[in-house]
Specification:
Blueprint lengths: L2 H14 L3 E2 L24 H4 L9 E9 L20 E10 L4 H15 L7 E6 L11 H7 L8 E4 L1 H4 E3 L4 E12 L3 H7 L3 H4 L7 E14 L5 E14 H8 L12 H11 L6 H6 L4 H25 L8 H20 L11 H8 L4 H5 L1 H36 L3 E2 L1 H11 L3 H10 L3 E2 L1 H19 L1 E3 L3 E2 L6 E2 L6 E4 L1 E9 L2 E8 L1 E2 L13 E4 L4 E10 L2 E6 L10 E5 L1 H25 L5 E6 L4 E6 L6 H16 L5 E7 H7 L12 E7 L2 E4 L14 E10 L2 E8 H21 L6 H36 L2 E3 L2 E9 L2 H14 L4 E9 L2 E8 L1 H5 L5 H8 L6 E4 L3 E5 L6 H12 L2
Helix pairs in contact: 3-4, 11-12, 11-15, 12-15, 15-16, 16-18, 19-20, 23-24, 26-27
C-alpha cells in the first residue's frame, strides 16, 4: 500500500465505525496562549475536553499535522540521526467524548491493525499503566483485561508513569494510556539478538517502536498535584503515520518509505551524492563521511516538510516565538546541507515542487501556497548562508589569534557567541576548529547555554493557581449584540508572572471580545452594587473569554454588570472593518493572488500583512486608498450572517484564510463587495470609519508585504500635524508661494557648493600626499611615512591610497586622523611588505587601536580602526612602526 492509500484506509475504517471524519487543524496555533504549534491530535479538542464546548459529534477521526521541537516534546536534535524521529509528522487519531471508552478503543485499534492492515499479531506488544501507589492510582487492570482478549499475557507489559500516564501539562486532563509497539526486526535479527520483542519495548531499539498510543482521559490534575475525576471520560488516540507506513511497506526506516524517498531522490539528483537506505547499510557498512551525508539528507527531507507546512499555515520564519522555531528548523537544515552536502547556495527551495507533488492532494494548502513557500525558503536560505560566511570569518579571526598566542583551544564563551549571534551550533564550530587543529571548550559553552535557558525560563515563567469554581455552567458570548450585560462569575484563578499578580475571571455571560484573530481584547469594568472592578484586558482561551483584572471583587458571588469601554471598542471595530475593505481593494488593484497573511487591529492602529512579490508602488497605494475611502463614503451597512453553513458561505463568495480552523457553521461579514469569514467585532457601517490613510508599506519576509494604516480621528490629527509642519517649513522660506520650486533651488545650490568643496578637499589631499612622500624617511630600504592630522575618515583613506600610488614598493604609511573628536588609524603598505616581510595591516591595526580605545581590521595591505581617545593617536602610530619591526 502507498502512503496515500494507508491514510485513506484509516479514515474509511473509522467512518465505518460512525466517526465524523474531520479535516486537520492548522499546524500553527494562533489563539491558544499555552501552545505555539499543534503537537498532538487532541490540541484542537482541548476546549471540548475541558468542558467549554459542545462535544457533538462524540466520535471523530482525522489525520493531524503536528510539530514537535520544543518544550516537553522536543525531538529536534534526534531528527536525522535515527530512523523514526521527526519534527513535522502526521498523527492518525480517533476520539470519543463521553461515548465508548477503553474496551471500544482497544477493540477498534486491534481490528484496524490486524484485520484491516494484516499486521502480524505475534509482532505486537501492548503496555498498560502499572499504577502509582504514591498517588493512590491502581494498575490499569481494566485495560489489561480488554487486551487479554487479543494478545497473550506475555505481550501485555506494565509501563511506568513516564511512559504510560499521559498528561496535557502540569495541570488539566490526564489519565493512563496503552501503547501498541511493533517488533519489525527480521527473523535473522531476532535470532541474532537473542532477545524477545517484549524485552526491547521502550528500550530505544530502532526496530521495536511504538506506533499507536491509546489515552484514557479520566482524571483532572489540579495545581496542588492532586487528581479528581473528569466529568466526561475521553478517548484520545494517536498513531504515527510515518511509522505505520514503514510497517506496511516492510521497511526498517521511516525515511525509506514513499513518504520521504521522493524528496531524498530529488536531493540526490541535485547534489550528485548517493543516499544509502537502511537495507543497503546493513549489506555493506558505510563510512563516517557517507553517514554524515545520510544524516544530512534525512534532516533536509524532514525539515523541508516542517517549514513548508508552517509557511502554508501562515507562520513565517522570524526572530520571535513560533517564527523563531521555524527559522531554527530551517537553519539547521541549511547548515547540514552546507556542511555535508556541499551546498553553498540555496538548496531546500529546489525540493518544494517534489513535496507539493507528493502531498499536495492530501493537503491542498501546499499547492495553493507553493509560490510563497518557495520564495520564503529561498530568501531565508540566502540570508543564513550570508550569516554563515560572516560567522566563519569571525571564527577564522579567533583561530588566527589562537595560533598567534600558541593556544589550541577555543574559548567556550566565544563558541556560544557564534551560536547566539550567527546560529552556529556547537558541532559546526567543533568541525571547523578540528579541521584547523583546534578544540573547543564544550564545558564553558554548556555553562553559557544553561545561563541563557535560565534567563528565558525566568522571563516566561507563569504560575497558575487552580480555578475556584463558584457556579457550574458554560459561558455565553453576547458581544455581537451588547456592550453591557448582567452576569455572574463562574470561576476565577490567580496568575503570577514576573512577580506580578493578577486574576483571570470567567463570566456566565459576557459582551467582552477576547483577543483573537489579530483583534485586541476589550477593556472595561465589572460593576456590582458595592464596587467597580477594572478589566484591563480580555483573552480567548479554550473557546471562552477570560477577563483579566488586577483585583478580585470583594464579593465574587455578587451579580455584576459587565460593561465594555465602547470608545475603545468602536475605534477597534472601525479599524477591523477597514482591514476588510483594504483586503478587497488590494485584490482589485494588485490581483487575486493577494491573500491575508496576518493582521493586528487595536483602537489606535491597524496592520495588514499580505502575499505580494514586489513593492507596492506609490500610485497603487493611492489607488487603494481612494477605493477604500470611496467605500467609506458610501456608508455601506454591515451585512452579518451568523451560523451559516460553510457551503452557503462559499457560494456568497466569502474569503477563507489558509491556516485558520473553521467549523461547519461560520460567521460571514459583508460590507458591499467585501465578503469574508470573520468572528471579530465590526463597525455597524463603513461610514463609522471616517477616513482611511496608509502610513507605510514594507516587506516583512519574502513574498510578504505589510501595510500600516490609520483611520478616523487619528487621520484628522495627522492632517493637522502635517499642516503645522508645512506652515513651519514655509516660514523658513519667507512664506514663498512656490515652496517646492524654492526648495529645489536651494538643493541645487547646495549640490553645486558641495562639489566645489569636494574639489578643494581633493586638491588639499593631493598636496598633503606630495609633502608626506617628500618627507618620507627610509628604514632598512623601506619608505616610512607617518603623520597625525585633522581630517575626515574618507579623506584619510584617500590620502593613504594617493601615497601608495606615489611610492613604488617598500612602503609603510601610517596616518592618524581625527574628525569631530573621533580618532582613526589608517595603515597602508605596498604588496612586497606583505609578501616578503610577512606584515599584516589588519592584525597590526587591531593591536595599535587599543591605544585609542577602539578596534578595526581590514586587508593585509590596508586596514583602518576607529576609537574614542584622540589623545592616544600619536602613540598608536608609533605602535604600528614598532610592530613592523623594520
Amino acid at each position: 500500500m502507498t502512503a496515500n492509500e494507508i491514510r485513506d484506509s484509516f479514515k474509511k475504517f473509522f467512518e465505518s465505525k460512525q466517526h465524523a471524519i474531520v479535516p486537520s487543524a492548522p499546524m500553527v496555533i494562533k489563539d491558544d496562549p499555552t501552545l505555539m504549534f499543534t503537537n498532538a491530535g487532541m490540541n484542537q479538542w482541548k476546549d471540548i475536553i475541558l468542558g467549554t464546548r459542545d462535544p457533538e459529534p462524540r466520535r471523530r477521526a482525522d489525520t493531524q499535522k503536528c510539530l514537535r521541537v520544543s518544550g516537553k516534546h522536543n525531538d529536534l536534535e534526534e531528527v536525522g540521526h535515527d530512523t523514526y524521529h521527526h519534527t513535522m509528522f502526521e498523527m492518525l487519531g480517533n476520539w470519543s467524548f463521553g461515548d465508548y471508552f477503553k474496551e471500544g478503543a482497544i477493540d477498534m485499534a486491534w481490528e484496524y491493525l490486524v484485520d484491516v492492515l494484516k499486521l502480524n499479531p505475534a509482532d505486537l506488544y501492548v503496555t498498560v499503566f502499572e499504577g502509582s501507589p504514591e498517588e493512590n492510582i491502581p494498575r490499569d487492570d481494566e485495560a489489561a483485561k480488554y487486551w487479554a482478549k487479543h494478545v497473550p499475557e506475555d505481550h501485555i507489559i506494565n509501563g511506568n508513569k513516564h511512559d504510560n500516564f499521559w498528561e496535557m501539562g502540569d495541570t488539566g486532563p490526564c489519565g493512563p494510556c496503552s501503547e501498541i509497539h511493533v517488533d519489525s526486526r527480521t527473523p535473522e535479527q531476532k535470532a541474532a539478538s537473542g532477545k524477545t520483542g517484549r524485552e526491547l519495548v521502550n528500550q530505544d531499539d530502532p526496530q521495536v517502536i511504538e506506533i499507536w498510543n491509546l489515552v484514557f482521559m479520566q482524571f483532572n490534575r489540579k495545581a496542588d498535584g492532586s487528581l479528581e475525576k473528569l466529568s466526561m471520560n475521553v478517548i484520545d488516540t494517536g498513531m504515527g503515520f510515518e511509522r505505520l507506513v514503514r510497517m506496511m511497506q516492510g521497511k526498517h526506516s521511516n525515511y525509506d518509505t514513499d513518504v520521504f524517498q521522493p524528496i531524498i531522490k530529488a536531493e540526490q539528483d541535485i547534489t550528485g551524492l548517493k543516499y544509502f537506505t537502511f537495507e543497503e547499510e546493513t549489506v555493506s557498512p558505510i563510512s563516517k563521511e557517507q553517514d554524515n551525508i545520510n544524516v544530512a539528507m534525512r534532516v533536509c527531507a524532514d525539515h523541508l516538510r516542517a517549514v513548508s507546512f508552517s509557511i502554508a499555515d501562515g507562520q513565517l520564519p522570524s526572530n520571535a516565538k513560533a517564527g523563531y522555531v521555524i527559522r531554527r528548523i530551517l537553519r539547521r537544515a541549511v547548515r547540514y546541507a552546507y556542511t555535508f552536502l556541499g551546498q553553498k547556495d540555496g538548496f531546500l527551495y529546489k525540493l518544494v515542487p517534489t513535496l507539493v507533488h507528493e502531498m499536495g492532494d492530501a493537503f491542498p494548502e501546499l499547492k495553493a501556497q507553493q509560490q510563497l513557500i518557495t520564495k520564503v525558503i529561498k530568501e531565508e536560505e540566502d540570508s543564513f548562508l550570508r550569516t554563515l560566511d560572516k560567522g566563519i570569518g569571525m571564527l577564522n579571526d579567533a583561530m588566527d589569534k589562537l595560533k598567534a598566542e600558541g593556544k589550541k583551544e577555543l574559548d567556550g564563551v566565544q563558541a556560544f557567541r557564534l551560536f547566539d549571534t550567527y546560529g552556529f551550533p556547537l558541532d559546526l564550530t567543533e568541525l571547523i576548529c578540528r579541521e584547523n587543529g583546534f578544540t573547543v571548550n564544550e564545558e564553558q559553552f554548556n555553562v553559557e547555554m544553561q545561563k541563557q535557558k535560565e534567563r528565558a525560563r525566568n522571563a516566561a515563567a507563569v504560575e497558575n493557581s487552580d480555578w475556584v469554581e463558584l457556579k457550574p455552567g458554560e459561558q455565553q458570548f453576547v458581544g455581537y449584540d451588547y456592550s453591557e450585560y448582567e452576569c455572574e462569575i463562574l470561576r476565577y484563578r490567580k496568575v503570577t508572572q514576573k512577580k506580578n499578580e493578577f486574576y483571570e475571571i470567567v463570566l456566565s455571560a459576557t459582551p467582552f471580545y477576547g483577543e483573537m484573530g489579530g483583534q485586541v481584547g476589550d477593556q472595561g469594568v465589572l460593576v456590582s452594587e458595592n464596587e467597580t472592578i477594572e478589566v484591563i484586558d480580555s483573552k480567548r482561551e479554550n473557546g471562552q473569554t477570560v477577563h483579566i483584572v488586577k483585583q478580585l471583587p470583594k464579593d465574587p458571588s455578587a451579580q455584576f454588570m459587565a460593561c465594555v469601554d465602547t470608545d475603545k471598542r468602536d475605534a477597534s471595530a472601525a479599524n477591523h472593518t477597514a482591514t476588510h475593505l483594504l483586503d478587497y481593494a488590494l485584490k482589485q488593484v494588485l490581483g487575486d493572488h493577494v491573500e491575508q497573511k496576518g493582521s493586528f487591529v487595536s483602537p489606535d492602529t491597524l496592520r495588514f500583512d499580505f502575499s505580494h512579490f514586489e513593492k507596492v508602488t506609490d500610485e497603487q497605494i493611492r489607488e487603494v486608498e481612494r477605493m477604500v475611502n470611496d467605500m467609506i463614503r458610501q456608508d455601506l451597512p454591515r451585512d452579518e450572517h451568523r451560523d451559516m453553513p460553510m457551503e452557503e458561505a462559499k457560494k456568497l463568495g466569502a474569503i477563507a484564510l489558509f491556516g485558520e480552523k473553521y467549523g461547519d457553521k461560520v460567521r460571514v461579514m459583508r460590507f458591499g463587495p467585501s465578503c469574508e469569514l470573520c468572528g471579530g467585532i465590526h463597525a455597524t457601517s463603513t461610514g463609522r470609519i471616517g477616513f482611511f490613510k496608509i502610513l507605510s508599506e514594507s516587506s516583512v519576509a519574502a513574498g510578504i508585504r505589510r501595510i500600516e494604516a490609520t483611520t478616523g480621528r487619528d487621520c484628522e490629527e495627522r492632517l493637522y500635524q502635517m499642516e503645522d509642519i508645512l506652515k513651519a517649513v514655509k516660514s523658513f522660506f519667507n512664506n514663498a508661494k512656490d515652496l517646492q520650486g524654492v526648495i529645489q533651488k536651494y538643493i541645487e545650490e547646495h549640490d553645486h557648493m558641495k562639489k566645489e568643496i569636494e574639489g578643494f578637499q581633493a586638491q588639499a589631499v593631493e598636496r598633503a600626499a606630495q609633502r608626506l612622500v617628500e618627507k618620507a624617511r627610509e628604514v632598512n630600504g623601506v619608505k616610512v611615512i607617518t603623520c597625525v592630522v585633522p581630517m575626515s575618515p574618507a579623506a584619510a583613506k584617500d590620502l593613504a591610497f594617493k601615497v601608495r600610488a606615489a611610492v613604488e614598493g617598500s612602503l609603510l604609511c601610517v596616518i592618524g586622523s581625527h574628525d569631530n573628536n573621533k580618532p582613526q588609524l589608517s595603515i597602508m603598505m605596498s604588496d612586497d611588505m606583505v609578501s616578503e616581510h610577512g606584515l599584516n595591516a589588519g592584525q597590526m591595526v587591531r593591536e595599535a587601536a587599543k591605544l585609542i580605545q577602539g578596534g578595526g581590521g581590514g586587508q593585509p595591505h590596508f586596514a583602518q580602526a576607529g576609537g574614542k581617545s584622540v589623545d592616544g593617536l600619536s602613540a598608536a602610530v608609533d605602535k604600528v612602526i614598532e610592530l613592523a619591526n623594520l
